[in-house]
Design brief:
alpha/beta; Aldehyde Dehydrogenase, Chain A, domain 1; Aldehyde Dehydrogenase, Chain A, domain 2; five-stranded parallel sheet; about 15% strand; globular
Length: about 350
């Protein structure tokens, strides 16, 4: 089995490669190719996602501290990984978990992200050729000893049916929420806009619903995010969604707030369409906490400065997860190291 030091050094060096300014042209070419395959993956967003991988997940101290929490494998197994493709390289964390533990990866990439994961793993093999025996891109996962699969609520039912006889992690739809106190600064509100709109709201860590105090005035929030208008007005897929959702609201007479590229609509539903964020008002924070508890299985993270909201993420940080922030709060490393 490939040694622990080989595994660690390979990923550290991959991180250094991604983070090195001398390799900026490589990242730009990769981002351009990814954008040709998927227009939602703008080059700017893709480069930001890749740099986050290099600077956070693969930073030497972060990687070693994280890995030291888990036991070394007794034997390597084949892990089938079905990846999401909603934001650039979102499947990389699962890839990292499988390979850094010493398992063999059987990867099924998303049709929405066919470029980035293969390119990163090709670079990993160039850095550590021994990894060529541990990385396989496949169409079928029949040979897997265990599974890690990410998809929608509908595909999760399919995964549960086909993968139930072997150990598995099966993820469903999730979203993120924000609890507003009314005392937020302009900078915090600007950062909240990023939590909502980065990657065009397609990620499970994007805020799709707000809880605001009774009588809250959204003017300050809209003013705080207005300077980002060009990012959304000039992206045809996003703006088509905005115009479509706006027309539906107008035809149906649905009350809403609109700043020209984002709409806020009162709704109890936690998940909102692209270009729309839902909100509810509250006069007692306990009612908000009750909602959060009752919908915990649907919530990826919560943004707030309120001391009443435990484990809240700071404004502007939802799309900057730590290496130990697991999707659906299921510890992938614990699962893999205890097989």
């Amino acid at each position: 089995m490939i040694s622990r030091n080989q595994r660690i050094n390979a990923f550290i060096n991959l991180g250094k490669f991604i983070s090195d300014p001398l390799n900026a042209d490589y990242l730009e070419e990769l981002a351009t190719l990814a954008n040709r395959k998927n227009n939602w993956f703008t080059p700017e967003n893709t480069i930001e996602s890749l740099k986050a991988i290099g600077e956070k997940f693969l930073a030497e101290e972060n990687l070693i501290t994280w890995l030291n929490q888990y036991p070394e494998l007794k034997s390597s197994q084949k892990i089938g990984v079905i990846m999401a493709g909603n934001i650039p390289a979102v499947g990389f964390h699962d890839v990292l978990c499988v390979l850094i533990t010493g398992h063999t990866l059987l990867a099924k990439t998303s049709s929405d992200d066919p470029v980035l994961i293969p390119a990163l793993l090709q670079k990993l093999i160039e850095i550590e050729p021994a990894y060529s025996d541990y990385i396989h891109f496949v169409d079928r996962l029949n040979d897997s000893d265990a599974y890690v699969a990410t998809g929608s609520d509908n595909t999760a039912r399919y995964f549960n049916y086909y993968f139930s006889k072997k150990p598995n992690i099966i993820r469903k739809n999730r979203t993120s929420l924000a609890v507003i106190t009314g005392n937020e600064s302009v900078d915090e509100l600007t950062a909240l806009g990023k939590d909502m709109l980065q990657y065009y709201g397609l990620g499970c860590r994007n805020v799709s619903k707000l809880f605001v105090p009774e009588g809250y005035d959204f003017t300050k929030f809209f003013e705080a995010i207005q300077s980002a208008d060009h990012l959304y007005l000039n992206h045809h897929k996003y703006f088509n969604n905005y115009e479509y959702n706006k027309s539906i609201m107008l035809i149906n007479g649905v009350p809403h707030y609109d700043n020209g590229f984002l709409m806020l609509m009162e709704s109890s539903a936690p998940v909102s369409p692209i270009s729309v964020v839902h909100y509810e008002t509250y006069d007692d924070i306990e009612t908000v906490k009750q909602f959060l508890n009752e919908n915990a299985e649907k919530i990826q993270c919560i943004v707030s400065t309120s001391e009443a909201i435990p484990n809240a993420v700071p404004f502007g940080k939802t799309q900057q997860p730590e290496i130990s922030d697991y999707a659906d709060s299921v510890d992938t490393m614990a699962f893999l190291t205890n097989l």
